[in-house]
Amino acid sequence: MRSLRGPWRPLLAAGLTTALALGLTACDGDTPAGGPRPAAGGKETGDHGGAGAEDLAGRLEEYGIDADRWKEGAWKDWSRDDWLREAGDFVNPVIKGLWKPGRMRDAEDPGRTVTTKDTAAGRGGSDPAPRAVPAEREKTPYHDHAAPVGKVFFDAPTGPMVCSATVVKDPRNPGRSNLVWTAGHCVHAGKEGGWYRNIAFVPSYNDLGKDAAGLAAAAPHESAPYGIWWADWAATSNEWIGQGAGSGGGGAPYDYAVLHVRPESGARSLEETVGNALEVDFRAPGTERLGTLGAWGYPAGPPYDGLLMHRCADRPGRLSPAPGQPSMYRIGCTMTGGSSGGGWFRRDGGKTLLVSNTSIGPADNTWLAGPQLGRQAERLLDMMSRQYGGS
């Protein structure tokens, strides 16, 4: 088994579809998990205009959008249910207190989105399946060893779910990035559905690596040492939205996404708060030139419980999920669902670079595959930096 010792340690040293998340502050309450939440001062349904509409207008103007023209002004009369049903954009209002420590612990892995039929590995263009590489627990505290890595929490129709993600550099805002890299299936259901709700990022989640009992008694800063960061903008590929499926589908080679986040409280950028962000390598080098790749994440499917950060290291091979599609990187790794979206890293000239993210794996959890990040992925990050990075 190859570990991430030596030059890998520590990680800390080392066509696009966009979505608008209108960051209203919603009231705490007893709304069931995953259900609609009221805008500030509003009702569960039927809240037309009022404080909510004023807040929306302010946020639209903040992003340079003419509030009177957006959606032809019809949004002013939308209820909260109308927003969730009618808005083609990603609506992700900040709901302070929603992601409490207990709700984070209870969030499940989106297992169906990280598994695929084993027959996909036998198609032309794929290298032999790698041997399984047992995942190792990351050392604690996580903020000293892998601070840019964290968990993504979101609500799907079946309830609260989790993925993994990485803080990445913003090319137009050096040292002040608010961008997070993850998988497309962690923000959008693909051809089977739409945008997920209540998406938030927690870097270095469960910083001290406590078990369930210990985390239940832990202080809030131990479960979220850098706070909770809400996605106010999101982007993924058109291929994932149009072709992505529970088994990866035709969207798997394009299964990546970028979030622009804001803190639930505070004003500093994510990169300043965490202390680091990783550069993304968009050269899509061939497997023969990559050397060893390391994958980080929070596996939540059995035998893992999603509370602890793990890592794998292996030399990658190629996986061709379907004829005529780009090949994906594949490494041996026993991480399960919940590690989806977690970054894959390489060392190059003394720097740690993100080169892929966890997308799919087999039902027996012996390997993981991730997309090659080329020019299309680079355009996605560039667009997020250009349009929203400075906000």
Could you say what the CATH architecture of the largest domain is? Beta Barrel
Number of strands: 20
End-to-end gap: 43 Å
Q: Which term fits the overall shape?
A: globular
Q: Please indicate the percent range of residues in DSSP E strands (runs of 2 or more).
A: 25-35%
Q: What about the largest sheet?
A: 6 strands, antiparallel, barrel
What topology, given as strand order, has the largest sheet? 4-5-6-11-8-7
- Estimate nothing, just give the exact number of structural domains: 2
Reading the helices and strands in chain order gives EHHHEEHEEEEHHEHEEEHEHEEEEEEEEH
Helix content estimate: 10-25%
- Structural class call reads alpha+beta
- Mean pLDDT over all positions: 80
Instruction: Write down the CATH class of the largest domain.
Output: Mainly Beta
Low-confidence stretches: 1-15, 18-51, 83-88, 117-122
At the fold tier of CATH, the topology name of the largest domain is: Thrombin, subunit H
Tally of separate helices: 10
Cα Rg: 20 Å
Region (Disordered): 28-55, 101-140
InterPro entries: Glutamyl_endopeptidase, Peptidase_S1_PA, Peptidase_S1_PA_chymotrypsin
Biased composition (Low complexity): 33-42
Keywords: Signal
How would you characterize this protein structure?
The protein is of the alpha+beta class and 391 residues long. It has 2 domains: 6-19 and 94-388, Thrombin, subunit H (Beta Barrel), CATH 2.40.10; 28-86, no CATH class. It is 17% helix and 25% strand. The chain has helices at residues 50-62, 80-86, 101-106, 142-145, 212-216, 220-223, 238-243, 270-274, 287-290, 375-388; strands at 16-20, 115-116, 136-137, 149-156, 159-168, 179-182, 197-203, 229-237, 244-245, 248-249, 257-263, 279-280, 293-297, 310-314, 317-319, 328-332, 343-348, 351-357, 361-362, 367-371. The strands form 5 sheets. It has a 6-stranded antiparallel beta barrel. The protein has a 6-stranded mixed beta sheet with strand order 3-14-13-17-18-12, with no helix packed on it. The N and C termini lie far apart (43 Å). Residues 1-15, 18-51, 83-88 and 117-122 have low confidence and may be disordered. This is Secreted protein. Residues 28-55, 101-140 are annotated as: Disordered. It comes from Streptomyces gougerotii. Keywords: Signal. Residues 1-21 form the signal peptide.
